[in-house]
Amino acid sequence: MLLDGITYMHEHTTIDLSRLKNTDDTNLNCFDETVSEYKKMYIKGVRNIVDVTNMDMRRNPEYVQKVADLSGINVVQATGFYQDKFLPEFVTEATVDQLTEFMIKEIETGIADTSIKAQVIGEIGTSKDTMTERERKVFTASVIAQKHTGVPITTHTTLGTYGHEQVEFFKAQKANLEKIVIGHVDLTGNVDYILHMLDQGVYVEFDTIGKENYQPDSLRATMLKEIEKRGYDDKVFLSMDITRKSNLEYQGGIGYSYLLDKFVPLALETGVSEHFIKKMLQYNPQTFMN
After folding, report:
1. Are 89 and 99 contacting, i.e. CB atoms less than 8 angstroms apart?
2. Which parts are annotated binding residues for a divalent metal cation?
3. Cα 19 from chain centroid?
């Protein structure tokens, strides 16, 4: 499923959240500029991107596949549903069984009316400090779909909150914790909070690298150093979760290559080992996805 090389584990090749965010900046539909940045990443050794765009982020699987074809990067696509305020009405009306069938079909047959098969469930989300009734339906269906297909689950935590509760939910549902990653944990800024999740056996993602308006990257690097010290170097991924035009280089943003060009050197200077960096970017994704 993944090619040898670097993997960004939580990205969006195209995504449109503008109807709720009320800014065109959150309609990431700049095809040529995205291809250009993906080609640049390819030169730096990136071979895989896990694209976690689903219903109803205005996904466009054929657009994503075209970017993959033109850039040479293997883009893994997803099925599932996001957090409550972005959920389509379908989730309100559907039963858990119907949501499950929807995801299994997209994994086994193809996303929407395409033949592009989903290889991951997610990013399934919870709201800030809570899991709504509709989100619970999505999480329940996701676990059943995972048990049927064996594909991994990747989650969204709003500002890093409700991560512990997500893990407890998965444990109660007897989900395969070795195939679950809790997203956006770096937004907590709290290494003990993250270590508690790692103690339970799930993976975690530092996937908002470069978003210093939330947390400084220096803190992310310091937390990673502590996680390595505690022996959890097999259970962490890195990514950037770029969702805005202004994040891209053509608009003066940090761009996708920031992770490799800026954050990795910062982490190494902070005391994170080169071995841990390699695990987060190459070996751990391979273990998780394959």
Report:
1. no
2. 10, 12, 123, 156, 184, 241
3. 22
Largest CA distance in the chain: 51
Distance CA 99, CA 94 (A): 6
**Reported pTM:** 0.98
Amino acid at 9: M
* Helices 96-108 + 133-149 axis angle, to 10: 40
Report yes or no: 27 and 242 within 8 Å, Cβ to Cβ. Answer: no
Find tokens 């090619």 and name the residue.
Answer: 3
Alpha helices in the chain (DSSP H): 18-21, 31-43, 61-71, 89-93, 96-108, 133-149, 163-172, 191-200, 217-229, 258, 264-270, 274-278, 284-289
Which of 35, 22, 122 lies closest to 81, judged by CA? 122
User: What are the binding residues?
Assistant: 10, 12, 123, 156, 184, 241
Cβ(123)–Cβ(10) below 8 Å: yes
Angle at which helices 163-172 and 191-200 cross, to 10°? 10
Q: How far apart are alpha carbons 18 and 25 in whole angstroms? A: 7
State mean pLDDT over 268-288. 98
The label of the residue with tokens 């997610």 reads 122
SS3 per-residue string spanning 145-178:
HHHHHCCCEEEEEHHHCCHHHHHHHHHHCCCCHH
Percent of the chain scoring above 90 in pLDDT:
98
Rounded to whole angstroms, how far apart are CA atoms 27 and 34?
13
For residues 187 and 217, the answer to whether their CB atoms sit within 8 Å is no
Question: Mean of the per-residue pLDDT values for the chain?
Answer: 98
